Amino acid sequence: MSAAKIVTVPCKYKTGKVLGQGTYATVKEAVHIETGKFYAVKVINKKLMQGRESMIKNEINVLRRISQGHPNILSLVDFFETMNNLYLVTELALGGELFDRICKKQFYYEKDAAELVKIVVSAVAYLHDHGIVHRDLKPENLLFRTPDEDADLLIADFGLSRVMDTDKFQMLMTTCGTPGYMAPEIFRKAGHGKQVDMWAIGVITFFLLSGYTPFDSESNQEEVRNILEAKYSYDPQYWSDISKHARNFIDKLLTVDPTARMTAHQALEHPWLASVPLKKTAAAVTPPQDQKQQDLLPHVRQNFNARRTFKRAVDAVRFGVRMGSTLKNMDVEGDIRPVSEGPDQVLKQDDSE
């Protein structure tokens, strides 16, 4: 039987600068030739993805199911393929990452954090209602649509997401995500579901109120132990002005037993969020009428910058170790043999699910 004839069509997009680079794909800015509208295009190399096509099909299935349904979820605009590549066209979010935007504010109060968390929880409730578990919620995947002050906050990066069959009990088994935001059940490999997103929201909330994550440790092993035991505390230096409702909200999410963890809809009804109006856009920069609220920005920014500096130092040491190992594995001709890498920031899933 002869091979199917490949039909080519004129490309509707012109790609521009690179926005991000991954193992299998490059994300580029692109303009739709007919309309002049700008988008983000994920260009996936077919050859590099050979044997792992299920990962891409899953991401497309997820984005198709949820696109255009919620104002705070990055939407899939188009999908097509050529001889060598697959292309996923999504909205272009140019407003920057959540925490970078917070650090540029003049004021930042607990109510601002509550408004942001409520936006995220509302979007996650929508995902869960449609049978989607994100599995990699973190501040870096919360982007603003535009640089405007009233821009929509968007949940992005559905590369690790999964469609879960809502008609029957189903658990996911693969270890994946970003370690500091991963729930205990993921590390235990005992099966996990939508509740891992709620744990991640607990970590994000802690981070938004303090500038550091609850399980920060000097070693990966200690961090994992802390996560498995939900071992964290509220340092009075940073938490004395944070309300009991906020801490209770976090406690009800950072619970080891996923069945005891709040669902997205329960979280929306929690006193800390229930009294906050649901806004689809970024929190305001003006001080609240209630002058009793403490401006959190100074210590949040300080802790965030200290954490970022520490991470850069750790990354530099890891890079040095890897380069040293690589050089030791060079032969006389200078060819480099593969060397096992250290743990990536994001643990990708295999093809077993």
From TrEMBL:
Region ranges (Disordered):
334-353
Q: Which residues bind ATP?
A: K42
Cross-referenced SUPFAM superfamilies, in alphabetical order?
A: Protein kinase-like (PK-like)
Q: What positions does the domain Protein kinase occupy?
A: 13-273
| Alphabetized UniProt keyword annotations | ATP-binding, Kinase, Nucleotide-binding, Serine/threonine-protein kinase, Transferase
Q: Which CDD domains match?
A: STKc_CAMK
Matching entries from InterPro entries are given as: Kinase-like_dom_sf, Prot_kinase_dom, Protein_kinase_ATP_BS, Ser/Thr_kinase_AS
**GO molecular function, a single term:** protein serine/threonine kinase activity
PANTHER family hit by this protein: SERINE/THREONINE-PROTEIN KINASE
Q: Which protein family is it in?
A: Belongs to the protein kinase superfamily.
Q: What is this protein called in UniProt?
A: Protein kinase domain-containing protein
